Amino acid sequence: MDEIFSILEIEVKKYQVPVVDLIKVQTGSAFKILVATILSARTNDRTTAEVSSRLFNFVDCADDFDKFSQDEIADLIYPVGFYKNKAQYLKQLPRALNTNFNGIIPRTIDELITLPGVGRKTANLVLAQAFEIPAICVDVHVHRILNRIDYIRTKTPFETEMRLRKKLPKKYWLRVNTIFVMFGQYLCRPISPKCEICPISHLCARRSVKK
């Protein structure tokens, strides 16, 4: 894994930075990182970036969502995936934060997943990106690639997270999602990965790669 990370740290510099990483650099706001992460579910980075930029022209903190109806929020975040559901989550966010956390974004997984629209993947990403607290965010790319290279053998993203917590050196926790998401989007794709130009092909078992 040391060799894989050293290679991929160089490789992914060729690629576009994921939108949540970009928002972290641009704003440093835990609130905006949380919102962008909620918006990014089932949505490509380009759409998430465009919608986040538009939304943050009107919303700077959670309480700003109280200024808009749920339908108005839905209009602001269209066309992200499941935008009507996400509008409901964002409309509920101020009350959830103010009632349970004094308006402050919490810093533990157990607390974050009580917020509307926040699951373990989102919670882990917020911890890592907003607070730089070691956390392992497992999305489809992380799950697929780490099984593909035969570093782990798991059936679900949750199993992958739990296995990585035991096996992956902690020094990689903050970067594992960013690196493997970019690698998975641009080269190690779900179907027809570009194995012939892959810089870690000599370290990969190619499990479940058929073409």
UniProtKB/TrEMBL annotation:
**Keywords tagged on the record:** 4Fe-4S, DNA damage, DNA repair, DNA-binding, Endonuclease, Glycosidase, Hydrolase, Iron, Iron-sulfur, Lyase, Metal-binding, Nuclease
Q: Name one GO biological process term.
A: base-excision repair, AP site formation
Q: What is this protein called?
A: Endonuclease III
What residues does [4Fe-4S] cluster bind to? C188, C195, C198, C204
Residues in domain HhH-GPD? Answer: 39-186
State one Pfam family annotation.
HhH-GPD
GO MF, one example: metal ion binding
Q: Which PROSITE patterns does the entry link to?
A: ENDONUCLEASE_III_1
- Functional summary from the UniProt entry: DNA repair enzyme that has both DNA N-glycosylase activity and AP-lyase activity. The DNA N-glycosylase activity releases various damaged pyrimidines from DNA by cleaving the N-glycosidic bond, leaving an AP (apurinic/apyrimidinic) site. The AP-lyase activity cleaves the phosphodiester bond 3' to the AP site by a beta-elimination, leaving a 3'-terminal unsaturated sugar and a product with a terminal 5'-phosphate.
User: What is the E.C. number?
Assistant: 4.2.99.18
User: Looking at its record, which EC class is this enzyme?
Assistant: lyase
Report the SUPFAM superfamilies cross-referenced here.
Answer: DNA-glycosylase
User: Has keyword Cell membrane?
Assistant: no
Cofactor (UniProt): [4Fe-4S] cluster
Which PANTHER family does its entry note?
A: ENDONUCLEASE III-LIKE PROTEIN 1 (PTHR43286:SF1)
Describe the reaction catalysed, as an equation: 2'-deoxyribonucleotide-(2'-deoxyribose 5'-phosphate)-2'-deoxyribonucleotide-DNA = a 3'-end 2'-deoxyribonucleotide-(2,3-dehydro-2,3-deoxyribose 5'-phosphate)-DNA + a 5'-end 5'-phospho-2'-deoxyribonucleoside-DNA + H(+)
Q: What is the free-text note on the cofactor?
A: Binds 1 [4Fe-4S] cluster.
Q: Which family does it belong to?
A: Belongs to the Nth/MutY family.
